[in-house]
Amino acid sequence: MQAGTGIAELIALEMSKQTGAPLEETRKRTWMVDSKGLIVRSRMESLQHFKRPWAHDHEPVKELVNAVKLIKPTVLIGSSGTGKTFTKEVVQAMATFNKKPVIFALSNPTSQSECTAEEAYTWSEGRAIFASGSPFAPVEYKGKVFVSGQGNNAYIFPGLGLGLIISGAIRVHDDMLLAASEALAAEVSQENLEKGLIYPPFANIRKISAHIAAKVAAKAYELGLATRLPQPENLVTYAESCMYSPSYRSYR
């Protein structure tokens, strides 16, 4: 659940940054469900501290499918580690009020995924934008092949870590995480989006990581948290030069 609230906080921060709306308002755009149902204000006294910012005004709702039907979210993110919670009913409900429902089944391992890629595409009649924490093979549905995204640590964390190292950052700030996510999003082409992909091809991960590292390092310098001075003129080039290359001499 704490992973979910962390994701929600970064979403609210980015929405606040892009719209200028207060953080208290953008938090209200994200609703959360735990083992007892929708997190609402009437449950405030029994909630753990990290859940309280996400308790909104609403009647109690026990089942996820009913919460989805009432709230009508555009994006469904699973990070609870509980498998099979995105049922056929839940995905079909998402598809009734979203032209392209976004379904993120992020829990690992595969057995704990909230639903499979095949289920998401089939139950949404091929309209879902799907990403998962575990890898899934391409899915063919009604003659069309769908390749899902893998929303796990592989995209952000290497670039984030490299950006912190090359800048000598003394502290990690939320704005650095937002910079990393914005850098990753910038690597997604229109062609990728048209195919239903919201992550760039993993084959380009070294280039992607260099660009993420550069943005994270730039933010560290901007915030006055960098200790490696002076700032390199070209952070992307510098990040690439600091990367480990697995090249080995042949002795045969």
TrEMBL record:
InterPro entries according to UniProt: Malic_NAD-bd, Malic_OxRdtase, NAD(P)-bd_dom_sf
CDD domains assigned to the protein according to its UniProt record, in alphabetical order: NAD_bind_1_malic_enz (cd05312)
GO molecular function terms attached to this record: malic enzyme activity; NAD binding; oxidoreductase activity, acting on the CH-OH group of donors, NAD or NADP as acceptor
Record SMART domains: Malic_M
Residue positions binding (S)-malate: N108, N152
A Pfam family matched in the record: Malic_M
Coiled coil stretches, renumbered: none
Malic enzyme NAD-binding domain boundaries: 1-221
Protein name: Malic enzyme
Organism (species): Solanum tuberosum (Potato)
Organism lineage string: Eukaryota, Viridiplantae, Streptophyta, Embryophyta, Tracheophyta
